[in-house]
């Protein structure tokens, strides 16, 4: 029985999956199993995965299911895994060689920590570094982080190592979510457990035209669903109304930035008005939105989106 189970959901990933699996095989920590779940791919992904399973039968296990999206694929992988710790890696992303070694050491040493995450860099389809850090404009937190996490998600799922017992306690990924599924899970975990952070770049997130997470509109709508869940659970007792309004205003800011980037001026104006109606003080955030839009446009030019 391996100590770490690495879960990789796979969908039409023939272009990147070899590099992704290679980054797991290159880990300095060797006590792991890899569960790859093909989610109804229509390319050669499953064929490639089977080749790895045949070559590394004691390390790699391949599952296949009809297309049910990433949450169901990850849940299938977790259910068929045996590790004490669970790690997540998407089919187009990469790990640094010492990722598991450093994170396993932290969880082994500090039994109070339920989940550990790290920094990431952004790379393009050819593995060229676009941004050295994802934390250039947001701040990572550790400890009891529910309140900070409610404001914004600062935990990159590809860096997470979590105790299996924690997932057994709070539940797996909610299959209603296709974009914000990791954020929804991390909130449930942080409500009850301590979160750890290693301030090092231990993974690389690949930006390319097929990224599901680029569906900004759908992601924001899912975050509104998440807000509704916590409002219903706490009846506004643990989440002050001002905090909720600020969160909702922030989501409208994100949508406005997305619409401006895509030259949908009327929709952007509508989102700005919703923002000001909810939380007038967020007008101070408009310069930040402009900077963020500039960042996105620059990134878009670099990656030819």
What general outline do the C-alpha atoms trace?
A: globular
What series of H and E elements makes up the topology?
EHEHEHEEHEEHEHHEHHHH
Number of strands: 9
The level-1 CATH class of the largest domain: Alpha Beta
Low-confidence stretches: 300-305
Strand content: 15-25%
What percent of residues adopt helix (DSSP H or I)? 40-55%
The CATH topology assignment of the largest domain is: Spore Coat Polysaccharide Biosynthesis Protein SpsA, Chain A
Please outline the major beta sheet: 9 strands, mixed
CATH architecture of the largest domain: Alpha-Beta Complex
Query: What is the count of helical runs?
Result: 11
Mean pLDDT across every amino acid position: 86
Number of individual domains: 2
Question: Could you describe the 3D structure shown?
Answer:
This protein is of the alpha/beta class. The chain folds into two domains: 4-208, Spore Coat Polysaccharide Biosynthesis Protein SpsA, Chain A (Alpha-Beta Complex), CATH 3.90.550.10; 214-303, no CATH class. It is built from eleven helices and nine strands. The protein has helices at 17-25, 45-55, 69-79, 99-109, 146-151, 164-170, 181-192, 216-234, 241-261, 265-278, 286-303; strands at residues 4-10, 32-39, 60-65, 85-88, 94-95, 113-123, 129-131, 161-163, 194-206. Strands 1, 2, 3, 4, 5, 6, 7, 8 and 9 form a nine-stranded mixed beta sheet that branches. Helix 8 (216-234) packs antiparallel against helix 9, helix 9 (241-261) packs antiparallel against helix 10 and helix 9 (241-261) crosses helix 11 (286-303). The radius of gyration is 19 Å and the shape is globular. Mean pLDDT is 86; it is low at 300-305.
